[in-house]
Design goal:
The protein is mainly α. The protein has one domain. It has 13 helices and no strands. Helix 1 crosses helix 12, helix 2 packs across helix 10 and helix 4 packs antiparallel against helix 12. It is globular, with a radius of gyration of 19 Å.
Amino acid sequence: MQAMPITHQAAQPVAGPSLAGYPAAVLCWLLSAGVYIAAKWVAPEMPPWGLCFWRLTLACAILLPIVHRHHEAMIGLLRTRAVEVVAVGAIGLTLCQGMIYHGLNHTDATTAGIIMALSPVMTMVLARFVLGEPLGLWKSLGALVALAGMIFIVAHGNLTALLQLKVNAGELSIVGSAFCWGLYTVLLRRAKFGIELLPMVVLLLGAGALAALPFHVWELFNDERSAMDIDSVLALAYLAGPGGALMYYLYNKSVQTLGASRASMLLYLQTVFVAILAYLLLGEGLHDYDLVGAAFIVAGIVLATMVKPRPAQPRVA
């Protein structure tokens, strides 16, 4: 949001997983959930691409001095693979976040958080086609069950409305965001940029801001200007600081101690935190279709990530 932090395969823990990494990971996803709340709060005052541009720009500016020891490696990567960096940043940060902010103009933060929980399953499916990774029976079944849950949410439990294309445009935008996040994760894994996680995050934040600039300029020319009142300033400060730079920094720390797989699996806490914060701060409640769809998505996640096929038994001659 994503609002969500960046997974990079190059970052591995130096030792076995430590319990010390879990508080950082939990706080990371709590701050990430706050992004949905802040963006929903100021949706009437700040256009989505302006919010996206300023969040990425400010978060990049905050983190840039922290990675000063890596500036030479970062510059070297930009000299040789700038187009790839910008393309990956545009998909994973610009489009992913911009579509979330646009979708929050038309749907609840709770519903958005539930739909975004589908992104790891989308990543598995995309990895099959882009990276050639095996999908297998259980992962395929899990992906179909989770997809059914997402469809149920988008249709608000009314499949007839779905067939008649009477669906919420905001929720479709969130689905597009989840797809972009999955594609971004797969492309980042394939690219193997070869520098450490946090400096790579800073480069991608800058690339995302650059890609968001034309969209923001288009908004300005169409009189969709930000109303920078106190609520907007506070929300943007949160999105760039605690919900941006600090969130990415904590994710980097959790990956170092837990490993990328364990740290990423805790992403599902974000959906829980979004629902709790939306209830407490925005007065949102869970709809029946949210609960049913969430149950399907959770079942799909369990099938795709936790059920392991039995190893083939050797035949006895």
